[in-house]
Every structure is written in C-alpha cells, then in structure tokens.
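EI: anyone free to look at a 390-residue chain?
SC: sure, send it
EI:
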Amino acid sequence: MPPISLLISAGEASGDMYAARLASALKRRANVAIFGMGGPQMRAAGVDIVTDYSEVSVVGITEILGRLPSLVRAMRRLVREAERRKPAFAILTDFPGFHLRLARKLKRRGIKNIYYICPQFWAWRPWRVRVVRRRFAQTLCIFPFEEKFYADAGVPVTFIGHPLVGAVHASVDREGFCLRHNLDPRRKIVTVLPGSRAAELRQHLPILREACRRIHCETPAQFVLAAAPRADVTSLSEGWPPEIHLKIVLGQTYNALAAADAAIVSSGTATVEAALLDVPMVVIYRVTALTALLAKPLVRTPYYSMVNLIAGKRAVPELIQNDLTPGRVSAEVLRLLHDPAARESLRRDLTQVRERLGPPGAIDRAADTILQLLRSRSNAQAAAFHGNAN
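SC: here you go
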C-alpha cells in the first residue's frame, strides 16, 4: 500500500522542534509520507518542506503587516500542496494567527485538522477557542490546566504532557563547557537567551548589552549568548562593551544554560527549558509600543512567562515592556548571583513547575493518539465502502 499522506506545519523554531519529533515518532510507527511548513529540524526528520517557516515567522501585531505578502504566499503553497497530496490529516503546531486561517481553508477542502501544541487562548483572546472548536477534529494540549479550558469549550482535547520533559539534557557538564569555550569555571557565568526573531533581537539586545555592562561592573562575570544554529554571529556580536567577556555559542542552548549561575531568558519555550535544567532565571520581553498598546486589552492572565503561569505565582522575575530596563535586569541578575536564599526559593518553585509538566513521553502519546485517529478513519472508510457495495 502507498504511504499515508500527512501535512505537518510549524511557524517558528520551537514548533519546528516539536513537529520534527512528532514526525519521527509517526514514521517509526507507520508508513507515512509527511510534507508541510517547517525548518531545519523537520527537514532532518524527513519532512518534505514545501515552504520554510522563515517566510512567516513574525512576532507582534504591527510587525505582521510588513510580512503579509510572504504569509499569503506560504498559505497558498500549503493549500495547493494539500489539494494535490490529499493528506489524511493536517497537524498544525501552535502559531494560531496563521494556522487558524489555514485550518479554515483545509476544512473547506475536506481535510480534518489536528491541533498539536494548542494555542494559549486561556492567556489572551479566550473567545477564539470557539474557532478551534469549529475547525479542528482533535487538539493535543501540553499543560494540565489547558485540558479543562478546551474541554469546557466543547473542543475534543487530549492532555499529552510537555514534549520537553525527558528531552532537555546538557551533553557536557560545566567543566567541559568551560574548557570547550575558554571560560573559567570558578567565575560566575550569566547565560543570555535574547530570542531568535529579528524583532525580538532589535528590542532586547540594546537593553541587554547595557545590563550586562552593569552586572560586570559589580561582579566580573562571564557572559554566554546562546543562539540558534543558523544565527548571524556578526550581528549578535555588534555593540557589546569591550570590557565584557562575551562568548556566542550556536546550537548549544542546553549546555549554556546548564553551565550558568543565572540566565536572562526571552519569554517563550526557552523559559521551560531553563526550568527543566533548574537554572535561576530572569524572564524578559518587549514588543513595539504600538503592539503593546493593541495587545494589552486582550491579555487575560496575571503573568507573562510560561514558568509563572504554570507555577501560578511569580516564581521567576519577569521584566516585560516598560519594566525591561538595564537597571532592572542587572539588579535581578545580581540578586540571583549573590543571594543564596533567593536562588533556593526560586529553585523550589522550579521543582513544582517540573512536577506539573507531566511525565516524559508526550511525543509518543501524541503519535499514538494520531495513529488511533488514522485507524478510526480507515475503519470508517472501510465500513462506508462495504455499505455502498451491498
């Protein structure tokens, strides 16, 4: 029999990682041919990438306007390929601004949608959950409190746990990392994760450069900037004060975090990775003033960082928008570096966060759920065929 066609789509780096792992799990279990939108990790997992997520990856309400032509092209390409290949399911990973529209177009063409990594509508624009109910045959959520939110809205939902649990490990210890990058393990190390999108870097890096200078004036620390494998090292290294000992490492985020005494982390998936590695952190994020103004009425949670949302309290310092200043960043990092009680309190909260993320094996549970849906679909088609034959 020919392989079963599936569409998998991811719109940014973390989604590319989650979707790649799911694609690999599905390929191990069944004869499937997977195509869609993604990046290097999905390519490495054997997914036929018909459009690269770099064409659509954008953050912020106002920033989207400049990328509309690319977004439209990517959407048309995916729909055209779906019409040609007729996938059994479209598995869409987070990225709701794009994927909710794609789901509508695919459903009109008779393709059933599965939401893998549900959008965080419980945090902002909760009314959009009604759109998910209309356009998706199944959703897979990764946080325990999401299951009730989606189920109460009438959405078919399964809690699979967080895909990063059991998958986040450093490949070298602190001594090995320092030896590899000419760092002194006896001195403090501050790891900086400024974000991966161009808009994030524009907003964050000028503030972080000055914050690190201030930290260095108080404590002669070493600074490690952890970036994605394809990041532009030249642009990342520009503008740093000459007195700062900065190392830029590509594709070694887990090692850089595990070696850190404290970390400055852009809000997003990286905060969960830092929590799993038990790293004291300060969470940061800033968008343009207009985007912040437009988004403020839509936010429905008291916290912005995923770690604090899971903890249900301010477990880690979060400096968002106007609170993100060099002085605030440096003060919070210095507190974590020099106050043992603050570090231990934060780490106790991180332990609770890890416990709430569920057991390892989320990717396998997602793959098993999707294969069960495929079997149900095949059985229904077989029953319909026999009914027509009779």
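EI: The chain is about 50% helix and 15% strand.
SC: 👍
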